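User: Structure please.
Assistant: Input sequence and predicted structure:
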Amino acid sequence: MGELTPSGGVPTDRVGGLLYSISRVLALIGGFLACAMGALIVASVAARAVIGWPIPGDYEMTGVINGMVVFAFLPYCQLMRGNVMIDFFTLRASARAKALLDALGSLVFLAVGVVLTWRLVYGALDMYKSSDTTPTLSFPRWITFPFDIACMLVLILVTAYTLAQNLGEVRAGRAPRAKAAAR
């Protein structure tokens, strides 16, 4: 069973460390893509102001890049337990109950991740077979799907890891680690 450090939530075991490294690289790629998307938007707005028309296909590329950004951040967010939680209902709950709810949340998120990955694969194959492209730039829509699917596969591994963490917390009767430091 891997352990999270109480202060930062960074895993200290080998599996967790590997998942952390991969998730961090994906998050950095996501950050770079978000910056590139911002630069594209600024350039398009500036072009509209200066020359009277935007960069052709800016809306299409923003949509494509935005999808990649979201998928890139998911594994890191899950590993760092950064997903939105509503603690109002669990303030008076026992440590074991909180850990059990976290385990249930991880299990549901794991199931959702598996289903989304499965459908992404089918969507990518369908778009590839039909040669689906964006209207303005004729950018092949399937081309970002391998990256998105890879991010989702990492998310599945990370979620299975965090589920194992949660079940260990349930057995030990202790509060979830990343949240224990905040309380």
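The radius of gyration is 20 Å.
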